[in-house]
């Protein structure tokens, strides 16, 4: 059950909310919860649980795929006010791949129970349309991630990643280890370290333990073109 402020947040960020009937609203409210996750905590492991609809109130979530060998590739992130239904593959039958979701920062997340969300989509065309609208938007992000992996040099991919991460954090400092960056990019730590060392030698970044400082964003953007 959501409290008043959580319900207001859901109403402001889920466009189908005001289109629900009173019984539908009661059903959703009774099945929705707001859960807090610590940085690095898993919300969805891709196989053994089905979340339903996820809406981020605070923090940031990372959605990624995981190979049998344990290699990770980040598909996209969810920031406050953004929703995801890819974790509801148990009810959205056209989703044929499993994703993993973890908290990239300490996060507060509104979750609507999958069965209630399924029933709502069956009864309410606005909720169903919202689901597919969200899926379509994230599918574009997934395709962009795949395009980078398949067709771009690692130098360009890393430059894009650093620019995007700097923008997300609104800082010239990126507080991530080389291993964490490798996990995001589906690469090996050694490959990331070699390329970051090259960037440092070119005067683009400055490396320290657990931190990367962008010192020449113009050069970095040129590599990303």
- What is the third-level CATH name, the topology of the largest domain? Jelly Rolls
CATH superfamily of the largest domain: Jelly Rolls
Percentage of residues in helical conformation: 40-55%
Encode the helix/strand succession as letters. Answer: HHEEEEEEEEHHHEHHEEH
- Over all CA atoms, what is the radius of gyration? 19 Å
Helix run count: 8
Mean pLDDT: 90
Indicate the CATH architecture of the largest domain: Sandwich
Description of the molecule:
There is one protein chain. The chain has 225 residues and is α+β, with helices and mostly antiparallel strands. The chain folds into two domains: 4-149, Jelly Rolls (Sandwich), CATH 2.60.120.10; 152-224, Winged helix-like DNA-binding domain superfamily/Winged helix DNA-binding domain (Arc Repressor Mutant, subunit A), CATH 1.10.10.10. Helices cover 45% and strands 22% of the residues. It contains eight helices and eleven strands. It has helices at 4-13, 22-31, 114-123, 125-151, 154-169, 178-185, 189-201, 217-224, and strands at residues 32-37, 42-44, 53-58, 61-66, 72-78, 83-84, 100-103, 107-112, 173-174, 205-208, 211-214. Strands 1-8-3-6 form a four-stranded antiparallel beta sheet. Strands 2-7-4-5 form a four-stranded antiparallel beta sheet. Strands 9-11-10 form a three-stranded antiparallel beta sheet. Strand 10 and strand 11 (211-214) form a beta hairpin. Helix 3 (114-123) packs across helix 4 and helix 5 (154-169) crosses helix 8. It is elongated. It starts with a helix and ends with a helix. The relative contact order is 0.13. The mean pLDDT is 90.
């Amino acid at each position: 059950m959501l409290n008043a402020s959580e319900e207001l947040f859901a109403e402001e960020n889920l466009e189908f909310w005001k289109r629900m009937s009173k019984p539908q609203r009661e059903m959703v409210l009774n099945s929705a919860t707001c859960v807090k996750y610590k940085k690095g905590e898993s919300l969805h492991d891709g196989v053994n649980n089905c979340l339903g609809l996820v809406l981020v109130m605070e923090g940031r979530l990372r959605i990624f795929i995981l190979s049998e060998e344990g290699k990770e590739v980040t598909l996209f992130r969810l920031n406050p006010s953004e929703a995801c239904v890819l974790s509801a593959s148990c009810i959205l039958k056209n989703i044929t791949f499993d994703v993993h979701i973890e908290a990239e920062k300490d996060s507060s997340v509104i979750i609507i129970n999958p069965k209630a969300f399924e029933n709502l989509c069956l009864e309410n065309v606005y909720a169903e349309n919202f689901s597919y609208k969200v899926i379509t938007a994230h599918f574009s992000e997934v395709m962009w991630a795949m395009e980078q992996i398949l067709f771009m040099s690692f130098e360009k991919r890393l430059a894009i990643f650093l620019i995007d991460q700097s923008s997300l954090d609104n800082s010239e400092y990126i507080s991530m280890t080389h291993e964490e960056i490798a996990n995001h990019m589906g690469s090996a730590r050694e490959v990331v370290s070699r390329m970051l060392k090259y960037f440092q030698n070119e005067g683009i970044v400055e490396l320290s333990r657990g931190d990367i400082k962008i010192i020449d964003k113009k050069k970095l953007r040129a590599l990303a073109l």
